[in-house]
Amino acid sequence: MIIDTTKIKNINSFYRLESLKEIYGAIWILFPIFILVLGITIGVLVIVWLEREISAGIQQRIGPEYAGPLGILQALADGTKLLFKENLLPSRGDTRLFSMGPSIAVISILLSYSVIPFGYHLVLADLSIGVFLWIAISSVAPIGLLMSGYGSNNKYSFLGGLRAAAQSISYEIPLTLCVLSISLRVIR
What we know:
Elements: H1 5-58, H2 74-83, H3 95-111, H4 130-138, H5 141-151, H6 155-186
Helix pairs in contact: 3-5, 5-6
């Protein structure tokens, strides 16, 4: 029996196309998440740039205009500076609390993304209590702020942590009331 090599090549190319379809499917699943994160990042950069330009105009001083054209790269410079900044720990404070506080605040915010639907069939944790879980998880962030302030063993840092936690809670209460009123209206 003689096997035609063109048939074997056709079969192999079809198999490669099927594997590429799976790869393209995975890419298209991650595409809405990438677009959302990119849009939020660009929006934050524009808002920070506008805030600096408007503040400079109000205070009649020079704004961030030396890092790139019109100061657009100032946020990148600030992020690079923050990345290479030295990690200082308080000598008389509780280093575990001081280090765990920011981690708890950031992890609670990142966990709240698990219930946000990024697409029609793309939800990391499809729960029936998604909104309530989002509110509960995001309400843990002020505890991290308090832990950082208390762990420094400095009364001014502790007062700053209390102020940041109170400010965070004061933003969460109206947000929670708005979200819960909408969810109560939708639930039948």
